[in-house]
């Protein structure tokens, strides 16, 4: 029998600035308001694709766990070996799984470190590295703004003349740097400006998502649904009035209801009960406001085979990033959107060996490829949509990544 590889988790105790610990070697992150996980070094990584990708991901993760001897003195969610995942929107594109060699976690003022291998406990950086500013040159996206508005109008016609109720259309922008793009300063800027979002990085996909697709913790499941958006002005009194108008908007409430319904229907078979609030709340971010609903449920104890991969297969793609009905919306996206999404709008986050974890939807994000960064934004199109207003909304959704670069 092959010798098992040791995995050790030890308590650190003190408060740690997680995003300042990262080296420049392919960091992975999932941080919100200072709490979360960061990792570096690659113990194992793989890619999956195709219609069985969630099941293939599960098999690979469990195969890796069988090779490990886990010593964990902390025993909370996020300790022990961690799998960082970043799934593509389209099953035929590539999804990435990464198990870092070193993971540092922080929650409620206490911290810990996990490392794989028989070496001594790794030393952490004593102070944050000073990172140089980069120079960026903005270029065009896959299609022009004018062409994108034409495609939005085409989608509205489809909604008016077919069974399609909603479709999410995305667009991209490209930016180049004079040298390889370092994600660390971008991640720090996103965290400072958008502390209520989840700051993520997996295999070059970096961003700040406000949307939690799935949290599993001790048999409880939570999903935060966002759909319906309005830009902020920076004037508090004006923004309160805009928030009230968003909460009354029939177009936005209709879009939101589709998204909530798709998540609740996906979770229902796995839960003894689900809680779906009657009306959404308005989530305030630095640049926009969203209609938001937290759907919660208790997993059925007898269904031991149900795990994050099982639920992800039913949750993704939700109406918030695809549309309603899903199959019709997905086909229209493929026919008219005009670009490959890659891992934008796919599930991204982490899982531990117990099955606990957090995965968001990869929104407000960009994909780094050497000296190039490609950023994304999408809008939910329904019967009452207006192409010009949707373009304005998409520009507002580009703002987090644009400001993080500047």
Can you give a write-up of this model?
- The protein has 406 residues and is an alpha+beta fold.
- The protein has a single domain (5-119, 138-405), classed as Anthranilate synthase.
- The chain is built from eight helices and 21 strands.
- It has a 21-stranded mixed beta sheet that branches.
- α1 (53-65) runs antiparallel to α6 (308-315).
Topology:
Layout: E1 5-11, E2 28-32, E3 35-48, H1 53-65, E4 68-72, E5 82-86, E6 95-107, E7 110-116, E8 136-139, H2 145-161, E9 166-177, H3 183-193, E10 198-202, E11 205-209, E12 212-217, E13 220-231, H4 236-248, H5 250-267, E14 271-275, E15 281-284, E16 288-299, H6 308-315, E17 323-324, H7 326-336, E18 347-352, E19 357-361, E20 365-369, E21 372-381, H8 387-405
Parallel strand pairs: 1-4
Antiparallel strand pairs: 1-7, 2-3, 2-10, 3-6, 5-6, 5-18, 6-7, 8-9, 9-17, 9-21, 10-11, 11-20, 12-13, 12-19, 13-16, 14-16, 15-16, 18-19, 20-21
Helix pairs in contact: 1-6, 2-8, 3-8
Organism: Candidatus Planktophila lacus
EC number: 5.4.4.2
Domain Chorismate-utilising enzyme C-terminal: 146-397
Average pLDDT, all residues = 93
CATH class designation = Alpha Beta
Runs in which pLDDT lies below 50 for 5 or more consecutive residues are: none
Q: Assign the CATH superfamily.
A: Anthranilate synthase
Oligomer: single chain
Number of helices: 8
Shape: globular
Number of strands: 21
Largest beta-sheet characterization: 21 strands, mixed
CATH fold name? Anthranilate synthase
Element string (H = helix, E = strand) = EEEHEEEEEHEHEEEEHHEEEHEHEEEEH
Beginning-to-end CA distance, first to last residue: 54 Å
Structural class by SSE content: alpha+beta
CATH architecture: 4-Layer Sandwich
């Amino acid at each position: 029998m092959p010798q098992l590889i040791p995995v050790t988790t030890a308590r650190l105790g003190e408060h740690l600035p997680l995003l300042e610990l990262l080296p420049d070697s392919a960091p992975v992150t999932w941080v919100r308001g200072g709490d979360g996980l960061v990792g570096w070094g690659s113990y194992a990584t793989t890619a999956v694709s195709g219609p069985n990708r969630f099941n293939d991901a599960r098999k690979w993760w469990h195969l890796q766990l069988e090779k490990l001897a886990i010593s964990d003195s902390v025993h909370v969610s996020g300790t022990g070996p961690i799998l960082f995942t970043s799934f593509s929107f389209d099953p035929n594109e590539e999804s990435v799984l990464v198990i870092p060699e070193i993971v540092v976690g922080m929650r409620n003022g206490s911290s810990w470190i996990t490392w794989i291998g028989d070496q001594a406990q790794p030393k952490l950086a004593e102070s944050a590295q000073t990172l140089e500013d980069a120079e960026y040159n903005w270029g065009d996206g896959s299609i022009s703004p004018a062409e994108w508005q034409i495609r939005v109008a085409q989608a509205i016609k489809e909604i008016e003349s077919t069974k399609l109720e909603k479709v999410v259309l995305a667009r991209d922008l490209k930016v180049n740097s004079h040298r390889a793009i370092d994600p660390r300063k971008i991640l720090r800027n996103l965290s400072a400006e958008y502390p209520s979002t989840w700051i993520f990085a997996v295999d070059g996909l970096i961003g700040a998502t406000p949307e939690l697709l799935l949290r599993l913790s001790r048999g409880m499941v939570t999903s935060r649904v966002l759909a319906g958006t309005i830009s902020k002005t920076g004037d508090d009194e004006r923004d309160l009035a805009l928030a009230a108008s968003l909460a009354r908007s029939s177009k936005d409430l209709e879009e939101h209801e589709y998204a909530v319904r798709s998540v609740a229907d996906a979770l229902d078979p796995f839960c003894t009960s689900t809680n779906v609030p009657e009306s959404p709340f308005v989530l305030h971010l630095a640049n926009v406001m969203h209609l938001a609903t937290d759907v919660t449920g208790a997993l059925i104890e007898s269904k031991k085979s149900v795990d994050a991969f099982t639920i992800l297969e039913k949750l993704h793609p939700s109406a918030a990033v695809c549309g309603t009905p899903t199959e019709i919306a997905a086909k229209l996206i493929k026919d008219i959107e005009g670009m490959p999404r890659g891992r934008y709008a796919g599930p991204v986050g982490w899982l531990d060996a117990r099955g606990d974890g957090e995965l968001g939807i990869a929104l407000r994000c960009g994909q780094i490829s050497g000296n190039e960064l490609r950023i994304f934004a999408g809008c939910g199109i329904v019967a009452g949509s207006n192409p010009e207003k949707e373009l304005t909304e998409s520009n507002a959704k580009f703002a987090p990544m644009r400001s993080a670069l500047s």
